[in-house]
Amino acid sequence: MSRKKIAIIGTVGLPACYGGFETLTDHLVEGMNERFQVSVYCSGKKYPKAQRKSHYKGARLFFLPFKANGIQSILYDCISILHALFYADVLLILGVSGGILLPFVKLFTRKKIIVSIDGIEWKRNKWSKAARLYLWVAEWLAVKFSHADIADNESIQNYTAIRYKTLSNIIEYGANHAKRETATAEDREKYPFLKKIYALKVCRIEPENNIHVVLQAFSQLSNYHIVIVGNWNNSDYGRDLRTQYEIFPNITLLDPIYDQRMLDVIRSCSFVYIHGHSAGGTNPSLVEAMFLGLPVISFDVSYNRTTTEEKALFFKNADDLIQTVRNARLPVLQQVAANMKNIADRRYTWQVIAQRYEYLVNQVLRSKGKVALASSLSQDLRRSQLLQWEVAHFQTPTYFYEKN
Amino acid sequence: MNINITGAVATAAITVIIARVLFPLFIRWSPALRLVDAPNDRKLHRKPIPAIGGLVIGLSVILTTIISPVMLNIVTEYSPLIIAMLVLLVIGVLDDRLNISPYLRLAIQFGCAVLVAYNDIRLYSLHGLLGIYILPVWAQYSLTILIMVGVTNAFNLIDGIDGLAGSMALFNVLALSIMSSMVGLTGWNYILFSFSAALLVFLKYNAKQARIFMGDGGSLVFGFFLAAMGILLIRKAEAGFASYGPWFIISLTGMCMIAVVDTLRVFYSRIRKGRSPFSADKSHLHHWLIRNHLPHLQATRMIITLHVLMVLFSIGALYLMPISWVLVLQVIAVVAFTSIIQINTNFHRWYRFIKRSETHYS
Predict the structure, then answer these.
(1) Which residues of B are less than 8 Å from A159 in CB distance?
(2) Distance between A37 CA and the closest CA of chain B, angstroms
(3) Which of A146, A190, A252, B216 is geometrically suited to a Cys-Cys bond with A113, CB 3.0 to 4.6 A?
(4) Site from B279, B292, B347, B351 to mutate, A interface, most A CB atoms within 10 angstroms
(5) Mean pLDDT, chain A, integer
(6) What are phi and psi of A315, to 5 degrees?
């Protein structure tokens, strides 16, 4: 039997040097290329001609002259999908921006479609109003017209179950590419704070990552040192915060660090990890911090709670964070760290993630559609009719565990 | 022409004075007359509010007519149309007071339409719309009556938020006065100006935390008037100004389009849900905007902007394409606007849902 062909669509490309999806693709290719023939679509904008390879770890690479993010991603995804229709058996689409094509693909071809909806992008304030409306519609189409969809967090599974009455598959991210590194004398010279005890936060400088909350709290915690690494010069928000808080001796604000080892050193040496993300989904940075065995103090939203299995420490606002930091005792933090490591080892390794993707691909190849959570009766008949025949309980969605 | 404008403006000034006197008086009397709109779960206001806008506008214009010989002339010349409007005004006010059965109301509207159509205010030609020119007599009658009754009720249903029906009527009346000047119906300008003056005063009381509503008396009359006057203008264009015909038709359909398409959409969705098309609910375009947490005036402004732009663009589009295409584009414009509003409203509903579920987990 010939190997089934999979097209991975919607990432910046391989070799991975960008975000979560690219690292994921790298590990998927590694895990699946023996049993499947994998093709990956890459953005020509990020890979100049000289750097392009035709194959990577056994996967074919296609380069398209579009950016993988922003408005161009719509075109990028759509053209990738159209191209993949010529050969692939399974389209693995990461992100929903190509969702407008999926009704046609599903209705007119026999290709199997798996969509990873990647957090709740349409809620994020970083996009413009029109973009959010588009993403919202695209997500609807993507979920309705795919054979399986992937949510990266249980809280998102709840949302898709309520909105679409179907069961999403949860597959998170891996973290075992992050390595524990020890600081050398040279490192300590370059970053003197490595000698001290410090809290760490690594993130994009955006309001939804609650940097202002963390900084406000630590400006009142003069005995506790915090290091925040991020792209401060990217926005007015970042520049304003930087000028406002740079003067505090216990606050160190660093520009992005592209040296992976150096970043791992700074992460490994930190005492606690502050996670301020509020955007929908499982955040790769949190998962990596957990894998490195750092005690996590996380912003209190449902996504972070499910990612950490509610075993991290949580804060809702600056006062909360101040209290949490002041009250944190070493044994508690050690326990939290151990729990985080435990969870990450169990759930967030790329081997596990790649296996789950492969399982899903096989499942989709065999089955016809996705799991409906409500009886088909409730879709075909009106509520008043169901009530009249005393079968209104068919409207109630079934429990997830009955379907898995 | 100049003298005519001066006279019309003077008439309008008189109407303004009369309306400024009548509105406060009637606002004070309306609870005693039991002409108030009581809040219920469908209504967007909390306190009972006088629904006498149409009545007072009508009274102001009638009082102005008594002292204006030009207007008296018009009234006698077009007495069937005026009588029909008076009947509708009375029926509308009675409906606000007594809740007349919708079928009786429909029958009376039908009667009014027949009366007007019989007195030669009816469509003879579609001027090439959908490829149709001169109509046979039975089609003249049925189409005229259908349009009049349809537009009347459509305008009645669009009257749902502060300032909407009033400003739409104001724009339509002004557009009608331009058209009637173009075909030499200059006498009508007196009445149209008088109407707009009364509407302006009404809007002052109706805008922002409305102290007064238009009521059925107003919306029925203005809807009927728009349809009848529009058909009259098309008739006049046929008799001597044939080249204006298509322009008039397309402007008039533009003026009715939002109300008509929205009514058809609401009726369709009600029927599909297995309910009577006349059963009231909160699914009109303005309800969708309000559900989006838009202040009334902003929602009104959005709909009126669409209304005005649609009329202007339709006139421009007529240079580029056949009249039937312009009509299709008008329908598409309203449908697209409505769907964007609906998508946006659903988006916000889910946005609030997600926001809540992020922090209120079980």
Answers:
(1) 353-354, 357
(2) 38
(3) A146
(4) B347
(5) 85
(6) -135, 145
> Is A122 in CB contact (< 8 Å) with chain B?
yes
Which residue is associated with the tokens 């490192």?
A187
The residue among B136, B138, B200 whose CA lies nearest residue B167 is: B200
Report the gap between the CA of B358 and the closest CA in chain A (Å).
5
Phi and psi dihedrals of A144, rounded to 5?
-65, -35
pLDDT tens for each residue of B295-320: 788 888 888 999 999 999 998 888 88
Asked if B344 is an interface residue toward chain A (Cβ–Cβ < 8 A), one would say yes
pLDDT tens digits for range A123-145: 888 888 888 888 888 898 888 88
Greatest mean pLDDT among A146-155, B42-51, B89-98 lies in A146-155
- CB pairs < 8 Å spanning A and B: 38
Q: How far is CA B219 from CA A100, B54, B55, B216, in A?
A: 42, 7, 10, 5
Mean pLDDT of B251-276: 86
Among partner residues B351, B357, B359, which is closest to A158 by beta-carbon distance? Answer: B357
Residue B144 and residue B5: Cα distance in Å, rounded? 31
Q: Give the pLDDT confidence score for residue A399 in this predicted structure.
A: 67
Give per-residue burial for B243-281: e unless 16+ CB within 10 Å, then b. ebbbbbbbbbbbbbbbbbbbbbbbeeebeeeeeeeeeee
| pLDDT tens string B214-239 | 888 888 888 889 998 888 888 888 77
d(CA A387, CA B230): 49
Give the integer Cα–Cα distance in Å for A113 and A115.
6
Q: Could you tell me which chain A residue has the CA closest to the CA of B359?
A: A301
| pLDDT over 70, % of chain A | 95
A90-94 vs A112-116, strand pairing mode: parallel
Rounded CA gap, B224 and A316, in Å? 59
Which stretch of DSSP H or E encloses residue A114?
strand A112-116
pLDDT in tens, A60-106: 888 888 887 778 888 888 889 999 888 888 889 988 888 888 888 88
The tokens for A228 are 């925040």
